[in-house]
Amino acid sequence: MLSSRPVAIVGVYATAQRRTLPGRTSTDLAIESVKGALTDAGLTTADVDGVAVDWAGPTGHIGYSTSWARLLGHPIKYMTDSTQDNAGPEGVLKAAAAVSAGLCDVVVVGGGKAGRTAGPVAGGRNSGGGFEFMNLYGAHVMPQFALVAQRHMYQFGTTPQQIASVAATIRNNGSINSEAVMHARGPYTVDDVLASRMVASPLHLLECAIVAEGGAALVITTLERARDLRHAPAMVLGGAMEYFQAGYVNPPLYREIGHIGRNAARRALDMGGVSVNDIDVFCLYDPTAFEVIRQFEMLGLCGEGEGGPFVETGTIDLDGEFPVNPDGGTLAHSYVGTQQMTLRVIEVVRQLRGSAVNQLDAPEVGIATVAGSGAQHIELVVLGKG
């Protein structure tokens, strides 16, 4: 019979995040991230028996985490063969499930992107493959998210100023985060955002995620073992995933995916025994500023169509009631392929520990979300202070 053991995140690490990191490779950034996260946890490679980490080669089987076994120097009990399983809430939840079930005891999740392998590109043709609407018509990531934003504006009266206010807030968080790619580039005003060039109407350049290089990793183990390690554990309270269809194959229609993530959020919160009003820090996926508005509606903190006015009041500021992306999110901190998803989780862990750069006042519960409406899927995880 499979066991059911409480699970926690016990180690986190992020490399330098820059637009470019000359001389670095995806593999050496992943190695640095793994070693850093283990050191942060007070563990060594000898403790690791589960790996969900990008492997970009040149040796081994590119894309398969089994390649890490030789580098670790011993066999492993759990591995992944998908980059989505190696990052963010999805990676955390699947690794946590394996640890909870007793399939393994210590899992590292993460990876890195640099150089010519640094894609995907947040604003470009980043999803590969022969996608009908992406490759032929140029409907890559930003236009896909823009379709949802445009319909929301038409249907509910959401304004360009409201979307820009989200971008200004999050980018200003990044501007005062010394670890962010956009450090010291602000402050930004709503007018600054609206004056930046249009990328995909209604989204301006400063309302879209930046593209960068870097790595990130985290370590998951049992709560019992976590009690004896270096830092107070960040408990995995709950999580959920929700998929409508394969992303970027067909255009997102608001009537079909406008609510995506709503049921997942309810499941995750119920699993953790908390309500959305218990959440102290919101690390919401922000490939565009509009998606933050939609996700507040998804979480139920405001009604459908009310997200625009909700974010205008200062409620998402660092000192607001529902602070969003204190590190600057993907709009200003970093977007490094799938590992930007891991960075969302790392920021929640740091906030719960009290070690974040833009530290909030004693948060107890945090949420990290990734993907969203344009991608037509969402994954999220709820963490609590151990």
Beta strands, count: 11
**CATH H-level name of the domain at 7-120 and 213-226... which superfamily?**
Thiolase/Chalcone synthase
CATH topology (level 3) name of the domain at 7-120 and 213-226: Peroxisomal Thiolase, Chain A, domain 1
Helical segment count: 14
Under the CATH scheme, the architecture of the domain at 7-120 and 213-226 is 3-Layer(aba) Sandwich
The rough form would be described as: globular
Tell me what you see in this structure.
This protein is of the alpha/beta class and 386 residues long. The protein has a domain at 7-120 and 213-226: Thiolase/Chalcone synthase (Peroxisomal Thiolase, Chain A, domain 1, 3-Layer(aba) Sandwich), CATH 3.40.47.10. It is 35% helix and 17% strand. The chain has 14 helices and 11 strands. The strands form 2 sheets. The chain has a 9-stranded mixed beta sheet, with helices on both faces. The chain is globular, with a radius of gyration of 19 Å. The two termini are 27 Å apart. Mean pLDDT is 92; it is low at 117-128.
Task: Present the secondary structure layout.
Layout: E1 7-14, H1 26-41, E2 50-53, H2 67-72, E3 78-79, H3 88-101, E4 106-113, H4 132-135, H5 141-156, H6 160-175, H7 190-195, E5 198-200, E6 203-204, E7 214-222, H8 223-226, E8 234-243, H9 254-257, H10 262-272, E9 281-283, H11 289-299, H12 307-312, H13 329-333, H14 339-353, E10 365-372, E11 377-385
Helix pairs in contact: 6-11, 10-11
